[in-house]
Amino acid sequence: MNKKVVIVEDDRLLSIVLKKMANSIGYDVLATCPGGRNAIETVEKMNPDLVIMDIMLADNVSGIEAMKSIRTHSNVPVVYITAQNDARIRQEAVTVTNSAYLLKPVKVNQLQEAIQTVQFAA
C-alpha cells in the first residue's frame, strides 16, 4: 500500500511536477493545495503520511505558519520546497520538527532523500 502525501504549492505547473515525482517514488497524492489555510484544513481532514510544502504561498499564510498550525494536531513529516535561499527563512523552517528543506528546482533523487530523512526522524 502506497503512502499518502499532500502537496502545497501555488505554482500549478510545479504542483503537477511534484505530483509526478511523488507518484514515481511510491506516494499517492491525496490533494494539492495552493495556500496555507487550505493546507491546514486538508492535512487535518486527510491525515497524510507526508506533506510537501512551498514556503511562499498564494494566500497570506506561509508554509512555515501553516506547518506550525498543523503541528498542534499532527507530527506529519514535511519537506519544504522553496525558491527562498534566505538563511533566516531556512532557520525558521527547520525549527518546525520533523522537517527538511530543499531549494527549487528539485530533482526526484533530492526529494526522495529528504523524504527518507524526515521519515527516519519521525
Give a short summary of the structure.
With 122 residues, this protein is of the alpha/beta class.
Structure description:
The protein is an alpha/beta fold and 122 residues long. It has one domain (3-121): Rossmann fold. The protein is built from 5 helices and 5 strands. It has helices at 12-24, 36-46, 63-70, 87-94, 108-121, and strands at 3-8, 27-33, 50-53, 78-82, 99-103. Strands 2-1-3-4-5 form a 5-stranded parallel beta sheet, sandwiched between helices. The longest helix has 14 residues, at 108-121. It starts with a strand and ends with a helix.
CATH homology-level superfamily: Response regulator
Task: Give the class from helix and strand content and strand pairing.
Answer: alpha/beta
Would you count the extended β strands for me? 5
Report strand order across the widest sheet. 2-1-3-4-5
Rounded Rg: 13 Å
* Number of discrete helical segments: 5
**Which fold name fills CATH's third level, the topology?**
Rossmann fold
Residue share in helices?
Answer: 40-55%
The largest sheet is: 5 strands, parallel
Shape: globular
Calculate the terminal CA-CA distance, rounded to whole Å. Answer: 19 Å
Unreliable residue stretches? none
At the first level of CATH, what is the class?
Alpha Beta
Percent of residues in beta strands: 15-25%
CATH-derived architecture: 3-Layer(aba) Sandwich
Q: Structurally, how many domains make up the residues?
A: 1
Give the ordered list of helices and strands. Answer: EHEHEHEHEH
Mean pLDDT: 94
